[in-house]
Design a protein that fits this description.
Blueprint lengths: L6 E3 L1 E2 L2 E2 L9 E3 L49
Antiparallel strand pairs: 1-4, 2-3
Length: 77
Amino acid sequence: MLPGQITFILHREHATLAVERGFPFQLVAESKRGYKWIKWVTEIELSDNLNYKGYWESRGYSNSGDLNESFFGNLMP
């Protein structure tokens, strides 16, 4: 996988994903922290709003989720 790519995961260790892991699929971005991964996709909404904050981001987590930056974004001194 190339950096920045998102992968649809259908199987884990050669078995269909379990419900608690996001059945029928999970979206994984290996270059991002786990809270940027997606389980139980119910809808997809596209936006060009650069100020949008998702569930975790509105609670102080980094908006980019990059592995090389502070976990809590701007909350860290």
